[in-house]
Amino acid sequence: MREMIQFKRPDGKTCPGYLATPKAGASAHGFVCIQEWWGLNEQIKKTADRLAEAGYRALVPDLYRGKVAKASDEASHMMANLNFPDAAEQDIRGAVQFLKQSSKKVAVGGFCMGGALTILAAVRVPEMDAGACFYGIPDLPADELKKIKTPLTCHFANQDGWITPAKVNDLEAALKQSKSQFEIYRYDAQHAFMNEARPAVYDADGAKLAWDRMLNFLKTALT
After folding, report:
1. What CATH number is given for 2-221 in this structure?
2. What pLDDT digit, counting tens, does each position of 99-111 carry?
3. What is the pTM of this model?
4. What share of the chain is helix, strand, coil (3-state, %, to 5)?
């Protein structure tokens, strides 16, 4: 089943979202899937559908409230205007709490901006059971990152001019001082290499490997 829903945030306000339910139904493990900077577009909906096909209840919170960017400058502007702490502590936490009404365990994962929000959620959302980060790192001091206890799988591109290898090394150093059971993978690819809607950067082999690694991680982390 695929549907648009409204769920409650911890502050009592509502957030819209796209929910893809697997054959196993409402008792299946949950996955809060976080958009790239483009918004809740068809590509991220298809990603949620893939997660449902893999057996997860996938919920994509609409962080931009219906707005979808077509060009990178528009997407950059929309991301710059997003309140990241509110998105993590209210929209994403609300999505986790919604899924946990019937799912025993819930992971949070995302791409680009969604990857950064996944790491932020690992710091700020106590109910999440695992995180899957793809080429995104939040602007947080190492002392905050060291507080993470949630297991994480993290996937980055070596040819990324934004989330550079040096930034990935800093993240890894901080996580090594945390209680998180984490794994970090690096790919000979470019930023957004998982996005099949962007042929200029999409890497089919890297995308399949990263997806399979994530699913294997979730099998262990959500047991």
Report:
1. 3.40.50.1820
2. 999 999 999 999 9
3. 0.98
4. 40, 20, 40
